C-alpha cells in the first residue's frame, strides 16, 4: 500500500487511505521518502504529549529543509522543544492574551460585514477570493500592525510560499523566494516598531519580559512570519471547509439554520471531519518500537491528525458528518506543550464569520463545479469555492 504526503492531499478524499493505515499499518514506513507515520488517535495523542521523544527541533514539515539557511529563521516556537519552547511560549503569550483576542471580536465582525456587503447584491462570489482568503489575513495584519497598503502583498507572498506543483515534491523556487521576502518585510517592520511602538503584537513582544529575558529580533520576526502563514491559511481553509461540508449534508444544515448557537458545533465538527492541518512531522529522539517495528533515532515521523480524527475507537461512525457528536477529543489544534497558540483566535474568527454569513446570506449554496483544492501536502482545503445566494437589494 502506498502513502505519500506529497501527493495524497491533492485528491478529493484521503480518508479511505487513513482507514487502511489504522487497520493494517498503524506504524507505517515509507522507504522511498524516508519517513514513518502514526495514524491512530491514541498514538498521535501520545506523541503530541511526549516532546522528549517526538522532537520538533527540525520543524513540523518534511519540507522544512527546502528553505535552506532560512529554515531556523522561520520555525519559531513550532521548531522548539522544552525548556526553550516553554520560555518562548510564555513570552509570546504575554502579547497574545485571551483578553487581547476577545477585544478583536468587534473588528472581526466589521471586516466580515464589509466583505459580505461588497458581494451581497451580486448573488454570487468566490468564497475564498472574496471572503475567507481575505478576512483572516486582515485580522492577523491588525494584530501585527501591518498597514492596509501592504496586506495584498503579504497575502500574495503567503499564497506563493504554500503553493505546490502537482506531482513535484518540495517547495518550488518561487516559494523559497517568497519566504525570504516575507522575512525581509518583518525585519523592516520590527525596526520600525523599535523606533515608533504602537498598539500591536510586535510592539507588545518587544516589551515582553519573563525572568529578565526578552525575545530576540529573530524570535519576533519568526513569530510574525508564523502568524501570517499559519494564522491566515488554516483559518481560511477552515471557513471554506465549513461551507463545503455543511452544504453537502442538508440534515445537518437544518440544525444550524436560524440557530446561531449551533455555529460552534458546526465549526468543531468540521475541524474533526476535515481539518485544514492534516499532518505534522516530528524527529525521533532515540529508538522506539511500536507494532513490531523499530524506528531509529533521528528518523522523521508524521502524526496523521486527519486520520486520528476519524478513529472509530474515539469517534463512533467517524465518517458521518454529525453536529451532535462529542468533539472534545479531536486533535486539530494538537495537544500538550505545542497546543495551538492561536486556537482561540481561529475559533473566534470562524464563529463571527459564519454568524455574519448566516445572518446576511442565509440561503448560500456551494457551486461544486467551480471548486478547486489547494496543492499542499500539509494543508487540505480549497483555493476556489464559488457560492451562490439570493441577491440583497
Write the layout of secondary structure elements.
Blueprint: H1 15-24, E1 27-30, E2 35-38, H2 41-49, E3 54-55, H3 71-75, H4 84-94, H5 98-102, H6 105-120, E4 124-126, H7 127-132, H8 135-144, H9 151-162, H10 173-195, H11 201-207, H12 217-247, H13 250-256, H14 263-273, E5 279-284, E6 288-290, E7 293-295, E8 300-304, H15 305-308, H16 343-360, E9 365-366, E10 372-373, E11 382-384, E12 386-388
Parallel strand pairs: 2-8
Antiparallel strand pairs: 1-2, 3-5, 4-12, 5-8, 6-7, 9-12, 10-11
Helix pairs in contact: 6-16, 8-12, 9-10, 10-12, 12-14, 12-16
CATH topology: Cytochrome p450
Structural class based on helices, strands and sheet pairing: alpha+beta
Helix content: 40-55%
Task: Please work out how many helical segments DSSP would assign.
Answer: 16
Say which CATH homologous superfamily is assigned. Answer: Cytochrome P450
As a percent range, the share of strand residues is 5-15%
CATH class: Mainly Alpha
Unreliable spans: none
What is the 3D shape? Answer: globular
Quick one: biggest sheet? 5 strands, mixed
Euclidean distance between termini CA atoms? 55 Å
Tally of DSSP β-strands = 12
How large is the radius of gyration?
A: 21 Å
The total domain count is 1
Strand order of the largest sheet: 1-2-8-5-3
Q: Output the helix-strand order.
A: HEEHEHHHHEHHHHHHHHEEEEHHEEEE
CATH architecture: Orthogonal Bundle
Mean pLDDT: 89
Amino acid at each position: 500500500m502506498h502513502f505519500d504526503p506529497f501527493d495524497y492531499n491533492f485528491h478529493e478524499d484521503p480518508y479511505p487511505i487513513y482507514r487502511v493505515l489504522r487497520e493494517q499499518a498503524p506504524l507505517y514506513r515509507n522507504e522511498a521518502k524516508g519517513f514513518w507515520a502514526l495514524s491512530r488517535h491514541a498514538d498521535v495523542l501520545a506523541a503530541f504529549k511526549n516532546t522528549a521523544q517526538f522532537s520538533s527541533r527540525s520543524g513540523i514539515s518534511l519540507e522544512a529543509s527546502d528553505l535552506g539557511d532560512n529554515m531556523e529563521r522561520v520555525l519559531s516556537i513550532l521548531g522548539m522543544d522544552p525548556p526553550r519552547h516553554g520560555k518562548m511560549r510564555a513570552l509570546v503569550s504575554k502579547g497574545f492574551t485571551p483578553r487581547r483576542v476577545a477585544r478583536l471580536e468587534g473588528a472581526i465582525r466589521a471586516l466580515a460585514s464589509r466583505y459580505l456587503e461588497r458581494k451581497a447584491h451580486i448573488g454570487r462570489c468566490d468564497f475564498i477570493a472574496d471572503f475567507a482568503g481575505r478576512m483572516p489575513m486582515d485580522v492577523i495584519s491588525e494584530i501585527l500592525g501591518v498597514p492596509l497598503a501592504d496586506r495584498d502583498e503579504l497575502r500574495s507572498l503567503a499564497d506563493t510560499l504554500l503553493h505546490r506543483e502537482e506531482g513535484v515534491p518540495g517547495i518550488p523556487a518561487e516559494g523559497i523566494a517568497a519566504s525570504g521576502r516575507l522575512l525581509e518585510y518583518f525585519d523592516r517592520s520590527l525596526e520600525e516598531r523599535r523606533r515608533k511602538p504602537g498598539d500591536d503584537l510586535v510592539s507588545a513582544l518587544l516589551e515582553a519580559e519573563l525572568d529578565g529575558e526578552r525575545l530576540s529580533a529573530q524570535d519576533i520576526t519568526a513569530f510574525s512570519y508564523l502568524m501570517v502563514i499559519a494564522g491566515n491559511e488554516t483559518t481560511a481553509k477552515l471557513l471554506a471547509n465549513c461551507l463545503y461540508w455543511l452544504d453537502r449534508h442538508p440534515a445537518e444544515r437544518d440544525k444550524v439554520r436560524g440557530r446561531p448557537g449551533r455555529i460552534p458545533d458546526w465549526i468543531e465538527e468540521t475541524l474533526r471531519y476535515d481539518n485544514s492541518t492534516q499532518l505534522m512531522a516530528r524527529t525521533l529522539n532515540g529508538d522506539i518500537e511500536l507494532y513490531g517495528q523499530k524506528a531509529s533515532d533521528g528518523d522523521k515521523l508524521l502524526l496523521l491528525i486527519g486520520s486520528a480524527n476519524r478513529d472509530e475507537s474515539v469517534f463512533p461512525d467517524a465518517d458521518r458528518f454529525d453536529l451532535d457528536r462529542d468533539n472534545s477529543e479531536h486533535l486539530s489544534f494538537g495537544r500538550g506543550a505545542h497546543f495551538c497558540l492561536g486556537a482561540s483566535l481561529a475559533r473566534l474568527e470562524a464563529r463571527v464569520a459564519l454568524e455574519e454569513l448566516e445572518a446576511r446570506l442565509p440561503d448560500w449554496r456551494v457551486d461544486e463545479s467551480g471548486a478547486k483544492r489547494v496543492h499542499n501536502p500539509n494543508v487540505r482545503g480549497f483555493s476556489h469555492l464559488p457560492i451562490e445566494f439570493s441577491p440583497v437589494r
